[in-house]
Amino acid sequence: MAESYRRSHWGHAVFVLPYLTIFALLLAFPLFWSVWLSLHKVDLFGPGRFVGLGNYARVLADPVFLQAFRNTVVFVALSVPTLVALGLFLALALNRTTRAASFLRGLFFSSSVLSVAIVTLIWRFVFIPGEGLMPLIFEQLGLQPINFLSTAGWSLFSVGVATVWWCIGLPMMLFLAALQQIPGDLYEAAALDNASPWRVLTRITLPSIARTVMLVTVIQIVMQFQLFGQAHLMTNGGPSGTSRPLVMYIYEVGFVRWDVGKGAAASELLFLIILCAAMVQYVVSTRKPEVAE
Amino acid sequence: MSRDTTYRPEASRASRPLLWIATLLAIVTMAPVAWLVGLSIKDNRELMLGTESVFRVPYTLINYINILYSSQAFGWFFNSMVVAIGQTLGVLVLSSLAGYAFARLEFPFRRTIFVIVLFGLAVPEQAVIIARHQMFNWFGLHNTHIGLILPGLSSAFGVFLMTQFFKAIPRDIDEAALLDNASQLRIFWKIMLPLTLPAQATLGIFTFLHAWNDYWWPLISATRKEMFTITIGIASSQQNFAQSEGLGFLSAQAVFASLPVLIVYMIFQRHIVTAVSGGAVK
């Protein structure tokens, strides 16, 4: 009798029905519809004719796409290592019970709860020529002010600074959690051996959290590949597209120029890239942890 | 494992210089925020003459008072509240129901359906946003609150989280209830749901923050100014700030817009920290 609820029963599916309806309508169907759109010539006046992989060919041949792709790769290659290294440093520094450390942890994480519009506003007010905090500091130091937001190279760098500032909380927290998992007796043994702090770090701490380092790296790659708001609001991709990321390319093609088929094709390409990274993440996170619990 | 015993003061003595560097970094990190707050309490006319006046008196609350008279910011704030609260409630209801069934009930194709839902975790917003925008166009859902709420309800994350939580509840609890001939819905409502309150809080906080801060969907869906969320409103006013309301007013608006999330963060900080660090690394 008590086993009855374990028996398969159509009635039980009622519980999942509300979510499944939303899932089917707002996720599954749009996914297929996007793929369908990406295979058709579509404009404002509705779906047109089937063009096969024509849209994909148009995207891949578009110099603006290639530039956006390169910008995104450069951005990921610079921001992710910074986030991982800085996050790890903060975790090591703040892995203690004192009130000061707890306060600093809260402070470094607090920026992640702000919206991208606030983050970019803050950093624009730091970087804007003439009125920003940076120009003021440069002036005080007697340096020639740099126009960070509209100089090629510096603009993507500024977007990166704002991004690291915004996103540093999550890596730090994940590293802190991993540090907490390291068994204390490893450190006791090291203390008995009078091991130097550097040796403890390189022989015990880092090897013990190697898996988390991998995991954080992949999570950040997935996240930073989707850069959009910061670039859109701080530099609008400029100057001359040097800070335009992939997602902004999709936005411009799909929602500014309304070339829907091409935009859909670009978005499926991005999906493919992210899917590969997500697969790596899955493999890393399901691999056996190296620290015995 | 208790948190306090795993912190190792003896290992951290060597890392004291690290703490000093971290403190220095914290000051650098906070400088832009201090700058924003500083700008927000200066008169716009004074700022026009030069922003270095932030470091001098007089300070004023005039920008904050101006927000009270600018109905726009309040309207945006209201929209954000409706969207964030609506999305949070929706996600909690849908995820709890589905998570309960996936974790504790048997029905045909349960495993298959769950795997399909999990695959939804890997689908980024960008892959579906163009199609969604078209669909919402068909049904005239753009520039409505419901249109801003709906896409957030499809996230598979909540279902995944709640399934994990429902799985962790011991079996004998609902088996005892079943012996008493309680209905499935009653068991869910009276016994299971109260046990998942901590999970509900975690999911609720994250959904609220995510909805409040969402940028891309409201950007393309809410195109009429009165339907902007506060995030989109702030974004739109900063795009032409040079000729508009002035640095002081925009700064005050940004501080005003951040207050709800900062308050949520301060109240639930401990909870958020545990959720972030506990959920991902286990």
TrEMBL record, chain A:
It is found in: Cell membrane. CDD domains: TM_PBP2. GO terms for cellular component: plasma membrane. This is Sugar ABC transporter permease. SUPFAM superfamilies: MetI-like (SSF161098). InterPro entries: ABC_transporter_permease (IPR051393), MetI-like (IPR000515), MetI-like_sf (IPR035906). Keywords: Cell membrane, Membrane, Transmembrane, Transmembrane helix, Transport. It is a multi-pass membrane protein. The chain crosses the membrane at residues 12-36, 73-94, 106-126, 154-179, 200-223, 264-284. Belongs to the binding-protein-dependent transport system permease family.
From TrEMBL, chain B:
SUPFAM superfamilies: MetI-like. GO terms for biological process: transmembrane transport. The keyword Cytoplasm does not apply. InterPro entries: MetI-like (IPR000515), MetI-like_sf (IPR035906). One of its GO terms (cellular component) is plasma membrane. Part of the ABC transporter complex UgpBAEC involved in sn-glycerol-3-phosphate (G3P) import. Probably responsible for the translocation of the substrate across the membrane. This is sn-glycerol-3-phosphate transport system permease protein UgpE. It comes from Phyllobacterium salinisoli.
